[in-house]
């Protein structure tokens, strides 16, 4: 079954599922996969820190990296995923307005993700981040394959 992961959303999939998210600009697309049990998840987070709007973080924790990423991991662990088997990949975190973007949301999203992973002794297996282009990501849970499409070019992550 195909699941669309909207902005500020998350989905968990099983063996026959495909997770897709569109228009990753400065947003983070995080994909986590346990190949042994063929379970994976995808998060499309907009902003790094929930402290800018705690009410929004309560109603939609997937909007923020600091609240959404831990929930994604927790949901996968509840499905039987094991930390030592996880394959973690990231996409997005671009600066769509170019080098002169004042808030540098993409860079801040990426930096916070790396800090969260590092604190938990986890590393990215692959990434397609930065630049100025928007990305679409397709995650096939049955194979673990992740494809990133940007400017009409599709590449395997």
Q: What is the name of the CATH architecture?
A: 2-Layer Sandwich
What is the third-level CATH name, the topology?
Answer: 60s Ribosomal Protein L30, Chain: A
For the biggest sheet, the summary is: 5 strands, mixed
Strand order of the largest sheet: 1-3-8-9-10
The portion of residues assigned to helices is 10-25%
| Rg result | 14 Å
**What are the low-pLDDT stretches, counting only 5+ consecutive residues below 50?**
none
Q: What is the succession of H and E elements?
A: EEEEEHHEHEEEE
Please specify the SSE layout and strand pairing.
Elements: E1 2-4, E2 9-13, E3 18-24, E4 28-34, E5 39-45, H1 54-59, H2 65-78, E6 87-92, H3 105-119, E7 126-129, E8 135-140, E9 146-150, E10 153-156
Give a short overview.
The chain has helices at residues 54-59, 65-78, 105-119; strands at 2-4, 9-13, 18-24, 28-34, 39-45, 87-92, 126-129, 135-140, 146-150, 153-156. The chain is α+β, with helices and mostly antiparallel strands and 157 residues long.
What does this structure look like?
The structure is a single chain. This protein has 157 residues and is an alpha+beta fold. The protein has one domain (2-156): 60s Ribosomal Protein L30, Chain: A (2-Layer Sandwich). The chain has helices at 54-59, 65-78, 105-119, and strands spanning 2-4, 9-13, 18-24, 28-34, 39-45, 87-92, 126-129, 135-140, 146-150, 153-156. The protein starts with a strand and ends with a strand.
